[in-house]
Amino acid sequence: MLQRTAEEKEKIKEILKLTEQNNIQIIKLWFVDILGKLKSISVSYREFEYAMTEGMGLDGSSVEGFARIYESDLVALPDLDTFQMFPPEFTGAPIARFFCDIKTTDGKQFEGDPRYILKRNLAEMKKAGFDQFMVGPELEYFYFKDNKTPQTLDHAGYFDTIPLDTSYAIRRQTMQMLEKLGIRVEYSHHEVAPSQHEIDLRYDEAMKMADQVITYRTVVKQVAAANGVYATFMPKPIAKINGSGMHVHQSLFKNGSNAFFDEKDPLYLSETARQYIAGILAHVKEICSVTNQWVNSYKRLVPGYEAPAYIAWGRKNRSTLVRIPQVKIGKPNATRIECRFPDPACNPYLTFAVMLGAGLDGIKHKMQVPPITEENIFRMSKEQRAQHQIDTLPAYLYEAVNYTRSSELVKKILGEHTFEKFIANKDIEWDSYRTHVSSYELERYLSTL
After folding, report:
1. CA-CA distance, 410 to 427, in Å (whole number)?
2. Any residues with CB less than 8 A from the CB of 407 and at least 6 apart, and which?
């Protein structure tokens, strides 16, 4: 049986007042499936109080990675702290939304809920002595003329502006809408590839940021559609140009201080930070199928297009998997690491969870980082990389899934239910891909074999 506390009941009363004052007619209950795809239930104003108090039932067997058909009844219970009214120009009507926690009908937490998986790993972080996991993602994406073919809208490049950056106004509208939704934007710019863009979010606590990533992707797509174009977070939509990444800046805080900062260290990195990096590098092959979960993800992770394919770390080195951004003197809270391998089509709850879990394992076992790499790895020969003991990421999805399949750490991070469902989903995707005959094969072989 679901029970709300006295404090939650008071908060429900406050939210009901706001919905009445603002003539809110519909509240959307948001949650994501195992792959990070947004799902929604629309609730009529007559049912607002019931939805906030009791939650709304859903068929879990119809949601990817949730429940089997004979145990499919689940409940979407609004997280009251995520109440947000949408600007009318965004939705065309007075609408609000909640992110939801997924519960079983007897009020227990559903173990396959991605938000719960991140919450559970944040609880493990607190047991390890830390208070906050702070993250700041940089999500890249493309604007195309439609969703049928990747026709670019411009021929601009890195930091180009008008007139080359023809989508500047769309990006500005997106930034303005994100700010109206309470999401702090740091800056935006045109990216390296034609029609590729980036809007960076101000760092925040991991759970809030995962919710913001879902909202960000939705806003980017809807503002694009309102302007007659299509936005995609597909990692590599066009061959031979840069793909889209989601570089994730991250740090751990303890008692209000950045646990990654050490003023006596040449790089201002604490031993904790170095152990965290060591954990990421040691486990990256195991977590890669989560942070880069699509067949297409591995067409981005190739040398030569600014995507990290090599397992190494460096300070200013953008050819490494983990980079240490340079921060201004006197800004200890800005000390952080940047994981450059995830892409923006991931499930942010699971992605933040596996990076945190890998880093914490490095701290727990006091792992030592390998020597720092400041050379451009893309220019190294195979022999030079071997000399520096620099390994590579999995080359394709099935290889990555097999590393995950044998990982006790990932099973612990995701929980057995989601671990098994995720592996099964990726096996199906790989089978579909490997049995597909592509245009490349027809063009190359049909007339000659």
Report:
1. 16
2. 283, 286, 287
Give the range of the structural domain holding residue 30, as residue numbers without chain letter: 6-110
Average of pLDDT values for 178-198? 89
3-state secondary structure of 8: helix
Structurally, the chain folds into a number of domains equal to 2
Q: Is residue 192, in this structure, part of any structural domain at all?
A: no
Q: Strand, coil or helix: what is 189?
A: strand
Taking a C-beta distance cutoff of 8 angstroms, is the pair 280, 358 a contact? yes
Structural domain contains residue 299: yes
How sure is the predictor about 330, in pLDDT bands with cuts at 50, 70 and 90? low
Give the model's confidence band at 107: pLDDT under 50 very low, under 70 low, under 90 confident, else very high. Answer: confident
Segment 229-242 mean pLDDT: 94
The chain-wide mean pLDDT, for the chain, equals 91
Parallel, antiparallel, or unpaired for β 26-32 and 95-104?
parallel
Length of the chain: 449
DSSP 135-151: EEEEEEEEEES-SSS--
From the CA atom positions of the chain, what is the Rg in Å?
22
Q: In this predicted structure, what is the pLDDT of residue 187? A: 83
Cα separation, 360 vs 253, whole angstroms = 13
Task: Tally Cβ neighbours within 10 Å of residue 55.
Answer: 23
The tokens describing 269, both together, are 């990195």
* Ramachandran area for residue 306 (φ above 0: left; ψ -120 to 50: alpha; else beta): left
User: What are the phi and psi torsion angles at 245 (to 5°)?
Assistant: -115, 175
- Count other Cβ atoms within 10 Å, centred on residue 299: 17
